[in-house]
Batch of 4 targets.
Target 1
Amino acid sequence: MPEVAEKWRFRVAALLLLPLLLLEVAKSSLWGSGRRYTPDWRSLDSRPLPVWFDEAKFGVFVHWGVYSVPAWGSEWFWWHWQGEGLPQYQRFMNENYPPGFSYPEFGPQFTARFFEPEKWADLFMASGAKYVVFTTKHHEGFTNWPSPVSWNWNSKDVGPHRDLVGELGAAVRSRNLRYGLYHSLLEWFHPLYQLDKKNGFKTQNFVNVKTTPELYHLVNSYKPDIIWSDGEWESPDTYWNATGFLSWLYNDSPIKAKVVVNDRWGRNTSCHHGGFYNCQDKFRPQSLLDHKWEMCTSIDKNSWGYRRDMIMADILSESEIIWELVQTVSLGGNYLLNIAPTKDGLIDPIFQERLLSVGRWMNVNGEAIYSSKPWRVQFEKNASVWYTSQELAVYAIFLRWPENGILNIISPITTPNTKISMLGIQGDLKWVERQDEGLLISLPLLLPSALPVGSAWTIKLVGVE
């Protein structure tokens, strides 16, 4: 037996040393040149946002993990069941699983049996998205890649026995789409996190052994275009060593020139620090901000993860999605739309249909979206017309077709060279100036079935002030 005890002592020592070794390897990679960013928010926030992100405008979010196995309630299933002990979740488990069943037992059932990353990437490309953000790890702690510090709780050791992050990344990038990685800082039930929480986050056992090594490993292994951080709300950025990691990311990492990050790096940072602001889920301001932002939302209004109890009333309609996209871009934001695959790796037809409907709309109206800039006026007073601009053109996107076929817009000021047309329709449109203010534009006399899209039509104005 002494040799068995010695073997376990060696393994424990190796497990404790491994995160430190990974950290040193990460820090030693590619010493950068040029401007250096110091580990403080004043310096980090001065970094210019890589241009590609603002130009992209539209991305697809993918929530996929062990929570896709019970597929009931929401992706917070484990917490609602055993963290909060909500009666409906306890009742669900009592009615569907044997006594004593534990959450980790869902792991082997997360098979990804029908996961075909090439088909996923084709769908994302057809949606008109320019980037994809994939969950590497949610708050349950299961990693969708072979994390060296997530033993027997990752997609290589359990369930799929595949590197899901790597496979999807290769497929997405082969279609020239940008690839972002969602990563939760916290893990609800990790014993080291619970210990730090008990200590009032004055210790950093979990950060040093788990969170930080994983972030460095993700960056060096997959070189993401976006690091979409989450799970920050219980503790300050100093607990997470956020500024130290970001200074390395911006100065010395292999993705220092292209990477974009959000604002969820501690309970004090959301909507205040970071490359772009999320502020909160489904955030959408009422006016133009002076900082780049992104609205993240889900096709299923009540969950980010797949759930079997989803009904049609819970699903965003095509019009709702397009309207949110238009309003977000008009106010200077990006729109990140979430879908949730099944445990087998299938994307529900309703999610496919919604993504494809966005793609059809973008095929006609993308000129008013991609690489656009907010105009001097973002929307008309009645909020039925929203504006974007691009070089010499102004785009007026109207959400409802006027009953008389005459569109009245107030904000544009014409010149002798003004020309007005509709995207998807050939030829110029007739228009007249109102005596008081604004323009009256005669829309094409077409049946609804002959219109280029079913909702949110775009008027292009060239030669306006």
Target 2
Amino acid sequence: MANLILNYVPVYAMLPLGVVTPDNNFQNQDDIKRQLYKLKEAEVDGVMVDVWWGIIESKGPKQYDWKAYRSLFQVIKDCGLKVQAIMSFHQCGGNVGDGVFIPLPQWVLQVGDGNPDIFYTNRRGTRNKEYLTLGVDNEPIIGGRTPIQAYSDYMKSFRENMSDFLDAGTIVDIEVGLGPAGELRYPSYPQNQGWNYPGIGEFQCYDKYLKQDFKKAATDAGHPEWELPENAGQYNDRPESTEFFRNNGTYVTERGRFFLTWYSNKLLIHGDQILEEATKAFCGCKVKVAAKQVSGIHWWYKDGSHAGELTAGYYNLRDRDGYRPIARMLSRHYGVLDFTCLEMKDYEQPGYASSAPQELVQQVLSASWRENIEVAGENALPRYDPNAYNQMLLNARPNGVNRDGPPKLKMYGLTYLRLSNQLLDGWNFGVFKAFVKKMHADQVRILFKP
């Protein structure tokens, strides 16, 4: 029994995006209960659920309505499952797998009608309304509050209104959304603006606030003549077709390195500020605070420029670890780093994408463990095949099972994307149950031998 506990990796399942509807109702309760009991039958530990800012505070500043989520959490508790609650400060819709549209609160969007620079902006001036630009984090632009204050107030209200579920141990994790799709990144590859895999994406720092910030930083560094990049291409370009990312391009020059350092540091400061507010809001609660996700941008990983990562804000090169600074920032909050694409293998990706998800996952996990923080993970795309599950098992316990004590390295938990009737159907459900058993038990990793 001791080994069973020592090797145990919890498994959660993401609930459907629209489990609470955009108009703040918990519908289809009987169907959800049936699915939750199936998860319990598979010995899943709990579920992850988005708690949408655009739903809860939709009627006006500080007008929170938690009733539908309280009903949902009660059903989850009654089914004997735990909750990972995501503080979702982003829009639902416009990303991979989004079948529901939940915008930011309308009163926030109305501020943007008069001041569109509150949204992330690309070089051509196209705005992205998925998430407020980090350039306004400390600007009192929404009803006299800064976005950081609005996020803080929201989390404090969640704690106050969900105190019974927190005290009872039903809610075990607070996953803090830090950007588009809840991820700590810039919205560099938006499908709703025409991006297609494996495009390099675009830098998203051309709103007036970030422009001013960069100009001040460059001036303070003694280079007032430096401007934001004008030669980094467009969403679907390849690195070699741009002056910025091509071999020995701008990204390796003094000016390019200065820009990339500034761009990535702004992202770190953004995450640090919000996680600081989360730590304060949930101080005294028996929950783990986590960064909802660091995105698994595996395309162009084998290219010298790592262009896809750079446009998203991850300053990662062959001679520069872009993920360890993120892990170090999280360590200040005793936070968990949640990473994605755990199910992917290199050979599954097209050669022209210069993709290496396996190496990327190893790098991020190693960076986290070297900074002595917990790391959790998710699959990037719904998969039901043994190959995907085996890869997740390998990443969850990279040193295998230790029969004489705790594994040297293991993940804090794994969340499967996503609960659906297809997952619970026949053969798919049988494979999933076997996967959960392997994640929990002191057994070899292989789910099914080829």
Target 3
Amino acid sequence: MEGKWWVKTTNPLVIQWPLVFRCFATGKGFATGKICLGEIEVVKITKFDKIWSCTPSRGKAEGVTFYKPVGIPDGFFSLGHYCQLSNKQLRGYVLVAKGVPKDTASADHIQDSELDSPALEKPLNYSLVWSQDSRNDECGYIWLPNAPKGYKPMGFVVTTDPDEPDPEEVSRDKSSEDELSDIACLKNLDSSLLAMPNLDQIHALIKHYGPTLYFHPDEAYLPSSVSWFFINGALLYKQGRDTGSSVDSKGSNLPGGGWNDGEFWLDLPDDDDGRGYVRSGNIESAELYVHVKPASGGTFTDIAMWIFCPFNGPATIKAGLWSYTFNRIGQHVGDWEHFTLRLSNFNGELWSVYFSEHSGGEWLDASELEFIEGNKPIVYASKHGHASFPHEGCYIQGSTKLGVGARNDCAKSKYSVDSSSKYQIVAAEYTGDDVITEPHWLQYMREWGPTVVYDSRSELEKLLKHLPFFVRFSVENLIELFPTELYGEEGPTGPKEKDNWLGDERC
């Protein structure tokens, strides 16, 4: 198995269930409990009755449990049942829906032929798609609703007997999805995104949920604000020029827009003392740069928090109990890392957090996090590399089978940044052009560090000579074990040039 594996934790896990956020700022549709998706209005249901559990009789596969939503408000209809792994704490949800009167729904997308048809209809009948006995001799049956013409099923229905479910069990949504697909997804046809938080609510959410970011006690390359980096001698270079030019505190003389064409890059001051000073960072000035955007069709809000470090340190390799720190591999000027809070637009609850970890990342449910000062999660930045992780310990990215990989050490220290107070909202496009003014440096799409030229192969060959006898590789095989960014020679780009700036955050 290749990938990330967790070696140890130095402190016991601290779990505190986050409270539902109560927003006292005035707004439109955020945290009201209901969201209009155009022709339908949806409510999130988190209470269930268990229907049936399926546990494999052999193998290592995990069992799953199926649930039926309960407490559905009057006038709303179920769109399907819910299932999850049996060994996980029950914390899922399903949406239930009701049609919106035509005079209140946005009709821009509605065809004339559809004006008289309701948004939701009962299924005609059901088709049995799967059944199985579980270990306790109870049978389970999964049914696909058969929808009238022009409608699509949104989910499956589960029973413990072979009798076909009642058509009243679920409703079907009017859909223009591909007729060949069995299950369709809900789409938000209301472009107003009224369920998203306004600016006052964004500030309230950040103050309520803003994580504390801890850096390792032995961290030599701390974060700073972008303006501190500029003021203390950062230089802008242009292709064909041997000398760099100073950057003003707001980055207003940086080339803005376009794309990363390789024509410009930033670097540390050109004198040794200045380079060493800026490379160390300045945590007192550090702040989180916040990008707010809709997720999952506007039913969630993603608050992406970016941290800047003037320098990324060398990587450390772990093989069993043995570790080796490279001289240069992994080093580069300018390091942008982030984590993302995902909040429910139904009630403002913190639902999950995304931890960006070098070339990948992972979403964790709020119930799996550590918290500080109430509902504020803790995020740990790895030593030298600044990738984000949910708990203290040593995380290895590489081969679990061979026990070799790049190590990410995380621990609490006096070096921390409280994002609930030290932040700047730099973008929230859905709020309109006049609400938030993006800083000029955010429009700089080129590299925040120079191209690094070093002989990584010679360093890797030196490493091979020191590896324990039980692990032997070729240089090529060794390279495949580690995150690709360790070998990236080009300087990193800023937040707006990253793939996750637009659309939903994905692992």
Target 4
Amino acid sequence: MNRFVVFLRAVNVSGKNLIKMAELKNILGKHGFQNVQTYIQSGNILLNSDLDKEQVRQKVEDLIQTHFQLAVTAFAYDEAELQKAYDSNPFSADLPGNRVFITFLSEEPQQELRDSLEPQAYLPEEFQVKGRHSYFHLPNGAAQAKLSNAFFEKKLQVKATGRNVNTVRQLLNLLQQTN
């Protein structure tokens, strides 16, 4: 049995794609997932399954479509993958964890799209794209930021969901506690 973190894209944000996490937790448990936990209301799920991560991702999406009538993109990571994404953060650990973000991308973006981004155009905000992740630092917070998950989706032509490093760190802690 493998332990996974599943991120849901754009749920419970600004009154859209509303999913009660307690209800989702019950549905997932009734459909074969074990030790289901949710963390905060923004679509973070920890669960055990004998399925591989692609099957987990697809089954979660299908269950949400069936039970909530919502087409929500899910991203599934095992502990090693999530730890690698966290460890690959290019920004200093001294920066506030609520101002540094990891965006999980549905696929590795095309090189020409990555090359078309001009990091200096967004200063003082900073970002780097590495494989299937983008990392960005918002020194002035997210309220007026140019960089966001939507920015990376549009520019890189992929689906994306992001979490600040505080949330990712907490999910890694929860994974380690349940192993």
